[in-house]
Amino acid sequence: MEEGNLFKQWKKQCLNKLDLSKKGSIDRDISHVVSLLNNSDYYFTTSSCSGRIILIDGVSDCTDVQKQNCSWLFVTHEKCQKEDVITALEKSSGDAVFKFEPCVLHVQCRQLENAQLLHSVAINSGFRNSGVTVGKKGKTIMAVRSTHCLEVPLSRRGRVLVSEEYIEFIVETANNKMEENLKRIERFYDCLRAALDPEQVNKSCLTEEQTQKKPVYRRRRKRAERDRPDSDCGLQNQSENEQQDDLDSELTLFN
């Protein structure tokens, strides 16, 4: 099967699947980004999250770092109030952890050059932890990720360890991070739209690298090679097994 037809088949299968995320739908604050990508001939999203503030209750003395054996006491994709967290914390019987998780987006790209463009847009929009993965089946996945996370333990075996004043402080901190997160999403959307439609280019979105159509990490790699002595840019639709298969990569390129 030709490469273009295979990509179309993957896209159709993915977008026709049920949403397997806990929420069961695309977050409002990232839906326009998802629509823009899915309406393109070169991309489709495999998972997305606009960012969230959560309070998770884990099992005491559990060494499993995954989310198994955890219960969700509180979750929101918007700013939250101190009272919401305090009320949820009263339900804790284990080790409660308060977290802010920024926007994350996984996008399958038709070709590597499409992933490179998306990578440049992501980096220049503030998503500095973004990377490209090429899987064994030839699937090119672009992960749009940021680094401004927050994770704070609040209770131990159901006993709250911090003051109400401290909870107010971390809620304010998380809300500030959420506000910055939403600004980055909008910048990413504006820059992506400009990159996909040159007639709508907003030069404030583009750096010198994008203007010259050269990916950021390619230029950095070339500089590294030149300086070397021997030198010569949710998961919502897939099951966990399918996601893992896509991420079992032969080649990974991170910023």
UniProtKB/TrEMBL annotation:
One Pfam family it belongs to: TYW3
GO process terms (BP): methylation; tRNA processing
Function as written in the Swiss-Prot or TrEMBL entry: Probable S-adenosyl-L-methionine-dependent methyltransferase that acts as a component of the wybutosine biosynthesis pathway. Wybutosine is a hyper modified guanosine with a tricyclic base found at the 3'-position adjacent to the anticodon of eukaryotic phenylalanine tRNA.
Listed pathway(s): tRNA modification; wybutosine-tRNA(Phe) biosynthesis
Protein name, per record: tRNA wybutosine-synthesizing protein 3 homolog
Keyword Kinase: no
Any GO MF annotation of the entry: methyltransferase activity
Stretches for region Disordered: 206-255
Reaction equations catalysed: 4-demethyl-7-[(3S)-3-amino-3-carboxypropyl]wyosine(37) in tRNA(Phe) + S-adenosyl-L-methionine = 7-[(3S)-3-amino-3-carboxypropyl]wyosine(37) in tRNA(Phe) + S-adenosyl-L-homocysteine + H(+)
Organism annotation: Astyanax mexicanus (Blind cave fish)
Domain of life (superkingdom): Eukaryota
Residues of the tRNA wybutosine-synthesizing protein domain: 9-193
Keywords: Methyltransferase, S-adenosyl-L-methionine, Transferase, tRNA processing
Family indicated by similarity: Belongs to the TYW3 family.
Enzyme Commission no: 2.1.1.282
Broad class of enzyme this protein falls into: transferase
